[in-house]
Amino acid sequence: MAEWTDEKILAKATQGDSDAFGMLYDKYAGRIYNYIYYRTGSTQDAEDLTSRVFFRAMRHITSYTDRGVPFSAWLYRIAHNLVANWHRDSSRRQEVELEDGYRASKSEEYPESVLMETEEQNALMKFIRELPEERQQLLILKFTQHMSNAEIGQIMDRTEGAIKSLYHRTLLALREEIRKDTSGQFALEEFGKLPDEE
Amino acid sequence: MSGIIWPWERKKVQRELDSVEDMLESVFKPVDARPSFTADLRKRLVRKQGPLAKASLTTLELVLLIGGAIAGVLVFFFTVVRTVAGLLTGRRGKKAAAKKAPDERAAEKPQGKLKTKKRAA
User: Fold this and answer.
1) Does any domain span residue B26?
2) Domain that holds residue A16
3) Distance between CA atoms of residues A119 and A125, nearest Å
4) Which of B2, B13, B31 to mutate to test the interface with A (most CBs of A within 10 A)?
5) Looking at the complex, does the CB of residue A96 fall below 8 Å from at least one CB of chain B?
6) Is residue A143 domain-shared with residue A84, that is, in the same domain?
7) Using one digit for the tens of pLDDT, what is the confidence trace for A113-171?
8) Is residue A192 part of a domain?
9) Is the pLDDT confidence value at B52 over 50?
10) Which of A112, A135, A149, A174 to probe by mutation at the B interface, max B CB count within 10 Å?
11) Which of A21, A33, A51, A190 is 20 to 30 A from A83 (CA-CA)?
């Protein structure tokens, strides 16, 4: 099965071949888990939602049709919908701060993983969590999945140009938050002072 | 903050955006799921064989559906044929009865006539 192409694996999986679906799982489980982890900030929820994504994908794979969108985009859309539902459902609950969840889970369950090393990174993550959902999604896809604007556009159902523009605006917004930050977490010499301070 | 980036600020802004990107790179480090979790989930997915079972079930359902439909059509056809046959034989019986009656009458009448003729004679 090593010589199988993605198309062949997908074709087999859509015919109900569970081994082929297992191969798709091997290929995408890590990426989907990463995506959900950064969207939820909780390892427990990331595991729960990753399971749900693949069970849902398995239930619907026989009706999957190739409409020019990669299979990964189909999976990410399932993940996106489940995460959106999760955010909606958990909006009433008190959410665990990403950095707290990150530290707790990493130190207790994943000692081999890399901890957020600096306060600067923690502060930046806090800013990211305050961004609109679509911007968070864009950053996660770009930096954890290393996707191009075109690939992100396929997942988010936007044009490549729209993603490029959204990314630029997101960077500007983060730059602005960093410049406004008075906690001293950032190396401000890189960013200079705000115009009204000059 | 003004949204305008003046031409003389562009280089500086770009440098700052590059710095933000570097920070983002350092923040979004890939995380590994617990190996036991991924292995367990894979087992559950592959063992369940949902799509395969579903496909077989669908085929079975399809066969049963077609078989049932054929059987239903046959039963209906035979019922119709039987009813039509029953109606036809019923009509024939009536027609036969209807035909028989005049014949019998005719057969009886001449006898009567004969009788009368005989009587007349």
Assistant:
1) no
2) 1-115
3) 10
4) B31
5) no
6) no
7) 445 556 778 888 889 988 998 999 999 999 988 899 999 999 998 999 999 999 999 99
8) no
9) no
10) A174
11) A21
